[in-house]
Amino acid sequence: MDISYIINELAEDRENYFNAIAPPIIQSSNFAFKTVDEMRSAFADESSTYLYSRGLNPTVDILRKKLAALDNAEDCLVFNSGAAAIFAAVLANVKSGDHIVSVNKPYTWAQKMFNVILPRFGVTTSYIDGTEIENFERAILPNTTVIYLESPNSWDYAIQDLKAVAELAKSEDIVTIIDNSYCTPIYQRPIDFGIDLTLQSATKYIGGHSDTVAGVLSGSSTMIKRIFNSEYMNIGSGISPFNAWLLIRGLRTLPMRLERITQTTQQVIKYLQQHEKVETVLFPFDESFPQYQLARQQMLGACGLLTFIIKADTVDLIEKFCNNLRHILMAVSWGGHESLIIPKCSGMSATHFNPLNKDHRMLRLYVGLEEGEYIIKDLEQAFLLI
Ligand SMILES: *Cc1c(COP(=O)(O)O)cnc(C)c1O
Fold this sequence. Notes:
The protein is α/β, with parallel strands linked by helices. It contains 14 helices and twelve strands.
């Protein structure tokens, strides 16, 4: 389907709300029925009737239809965080005694779910290097019910061969789930490769303005309906009508924001690659990236997030570099208007810093909507101080 149509028109029945261009925020917790019979049929299937906004809500519905279409999925659910989307997707596909195969270093809160919560219910997880399909084959056990992917990873951009993993999983009757936050459906559509469930943190590019926390989970109507009637309703972490409205607004400019960021990212990468204080730049669409071919095969684009390894003998130098940035903000998350940076060493005790370990010298940069020159100048003045 045409992306412009999805973003501008799909699911917007303007004649139902005074031909308003921007859809209304239906800020109502509940919906009334005229007859007992109507109420009875709503109770029988809450997934298709407006009854209570923890379930369906008309503003959220507009957003759902657009996001599902972008993913090329039959349906989707929108949560009040990406973490909730991850939790619901995994919980819906495991029971006590089951086993999960996950790629190494998935998003922090996915890891905490695998390591802390799920073992309490007898669900175990094996982590593998997902860059080789053989590693998946070796890790699958008779009780494996879920393969959990994140492609690319949001620090080192390791990717998985989505088509190969989907084929393997189907042959073993295993559900595949992918965290697609890095690409968004504009740059990668995992459902097209046979992945069952694709999710993303909509906090990042979909919202796009660093003002809303949200998550999306897309898949077949059958799977999504099953999750709606159980985990979604039970966890009760559906998105609010107002936040859904903000995401609809964010979607209007999503393709052009990505286009702009894609161009600026190239400019920033060129600058970093020629800098004497930069050892390496990690970026999936850079020819030097070890999985460059595969990235080009399955991703339509890459932008915004990149990691560079700085040359520094001490943690103080890295700290000095970051502390002196004037415009690039030091903060988590990404996908908004503003450029951001996180030094890996902020997640560890400074006394454990080892300059021989490249990971300790990683800085993750998010390129926002500013002019490329503005970002580069800021990096330049901070490099001059170290
Ligand atoms: C931010 C993020 C999440 C979690 O999303 P929230 O909206 O913060 O809950 C999941 N995966 C990745 C890769 C992320 O960057």
